[in-house]
Amino acid sequence: FSQLLFQDANEPPLVFHWFPFVGSTITYGMDPPRFFKENKEKHGDCFTFILLGKKTTVYVGPKGNDFILNGKIRDVCAEDIYTVLTTPVFGKDVVYDCPNAKLMEQKKFMKVALTTEAFRSYVPIISDEVTSYFKRTADFKGKSGIVNICPKLAQITIFTASHALQGKEIRDKFDEKLADLYHDLDMGFSPINFMLHWAPLPWNNRRDHAQRTVAKIYMDTIKARRARGETGAQDIMYHLMNSTYKTGNPVPDHEIAHMMIALLMAGQHSSSSTSAWIMLRLASRPDIMEDLYQEQVKNLGADLPPLAYEDLAKLPLNQAIVKETLRLHAPIHSIMRAVKQPMPVPGTKFVIPTSHVLLAAPGVSASDEQYFPEPDLWEPHRWSKESPLAPSIVRNEPDEEEDEKVDYGYGLVSKGAGSPYLPFGAGRHRCIGEQFANVQLQTIVAMTVRLFRFRNVDGSDKVIGTDYASLFSRPLEPANIYWERRDQE
Ligand code: HEM
Q1: How far, in Å, from the CA of 62 to the mean position of ligand 1?
Q2: Protein residues with CB under 6 Å of any ligand 1 atom
Q3: What is the DSSP letter of 341?
Q4: From ligand 1's centre to the CA of 430, what distance in Å?
Q5: Is residue 366 classed as helix, strand or coil in its secondary structure?
């Protein structure tokens, strides 16, 4: 108990709090980025606060990101933190429910499947899903209307990701029962489950039933594919069916099924939150939505031909929209690690003891004016080198060409050390879905811009606040926007 109230001389400063167990849980939980910024001003880049009775040490800024995310496996551990939450949702033997070396192999299988050829096949799948969604959905019938954009983007994200990454059979099941089952799985991801994951509560019973049912749907689909002798598909499920661990053993069907759940869950919240933010930002800046349309007319042709993978590289503003939105609205605001042995913080007197949890928050440096002029301004044009708002350092994101690279077992990744912009993390646990997310988001934006003009309902340039109540941050709802079809003039 005294450990919670006092700090050892070598521990970072402790954020003041009134109540021992609660500590700063409430102020942190209400608005984590604000909490980090206020305490960075008071205490510097490295400080400790109490989160549900646990001493949690935050280390922000590029050095902090590097210290935590590129920490050695003997020093830091993700699975000790996350497995209570993820194993009941994903299932056994994958991700954090297995030794880290196995996760690295699993990430490699998934990363290797995402070839240029695969991406070429995904862009038409995603564009067709977007067009057909807007055509058949009642809320988008007519010339114009008002809609809460968040649930719409959640649906578009799941339809596009499941179709591209898991094949048409799985995608079609989302029109039937899979959507409800994933909804039940999702309830296992509420922050309260960090403490009550084991409890026989109604939502945990539904989570467990959903996990078993969804896993069976995948396993039945795998069996049916094998029976048909299917070859040549570009989805990840197919690739995993043909992958072999270093031991020489093929990936068992239940692990493929559990990885499919993990993949869709990992991508769903992050991508749907990002796409919703993009649409809300565009509604607050209709001029940029028009720039995006004109960029397509200029670079792809006035008749706007079907979008191809290669076209995405011809649309720099379309790419910058995703980058800039992730700078200000990275859906993962806190990345946690258990401390396995005392960790001295280079250049300071601090040593982080094993009783602490480490917390990285790359979003803090991504909105720091030291690196990004007018940091709170959403301005996608800043990513063009000529912009007066261009980031103040030359290398503002992990540079695949120049950076120091490491192989953690899932292919070479740039360490990202020293970068203030890491929405996809860094190191051993870095996102393998980054390229897919970019292709998916850029395609969704490009296709939406072809069909609509958006603006705020009151015509203002206001932007809605952020909901931090779940593990991934997202816009507060209802997030209503006014839409108007382009082709109705
Ligand atoms: C890991 C962000 C989309 C699959 C991560 C991490 C971040 C991140 C920050 C590191 C977590 C940590 O260090 O603990 C994002 C964002 C996305 C996105 C911002 C979209 C805008 C996706 C998609 C997929 C995916 C679409 C799947 C296709 C994964 C996986 C990991 C990961 C498998 C590895 C977890 C680990 O090694 O512990 N992501 N992600 N992500 N992401 Fe993503």
Answers
A1: 19
A2: 78, 103, 107, 263, 266-267, 270-271, 274, 326, 330-332, 335, 423-425, 429-433, 436-437
A3: S
A4: 7
A5: helix
> Smallest Cα–Cα separation from 15: which of 44, 41, 52, 50?
50
Apex CA 450: angle with CA 446 and CA 451, to 5°? 125
Nearest to 465 by CA among 33, 153, 139, 35: 33
Residues facing residue 23 across a β-bridge? 51
Q: Are 159 and 129 within 8 A, CB to CB?
A: yes
Structure confidence by residue, pLDDT tens digits, 436-466: 999 999 999 999 999 999 999 999 999 999 9
Q: Tell me what pLDDT residue 415 has.
A: 76
**Cα separations (Å) of 279 from 355, 382, 453, 454, 475?**
42, 18, 10, 8, 11
The candidate with the shortest Cα–Cα distance to 368, out of 31, 37, 44, is: 37
| pTM across the whole model | 0.95
Task: Please give the Cα distance from 485 to 478 (Å, whole number).
Answer: 21
434 CA from centroid of ligand 1 (Å): 7
Q: How far apart are CA 451 and CA 469, in angstroms?
A: 33
Of 219, 207, 226, 203, the closest CA to residue 258 belongs to 219
User: What tens digit of pLDDT does each residue of 180-211 get?
Assistant: 899 899 888 877 777 778 888 888 999 999 99
- Are the beta carbons of 43 and 15 closer than 8 angstroms? yes
- Give the tens place of pLDDT for each residue, 378-425: 999 999 888 889 886 544 455 556 677 888 888 887 777 778 899 999
Tokens 């120049």 correspond to 402
Average pLDDT over residues 341-345: 97
Cα torsion angle, 438, 439, 442, 444, sign: negative
Task: Examine the predicted complex and report whether its ipTM is higher than 0.90.
Answer: yes
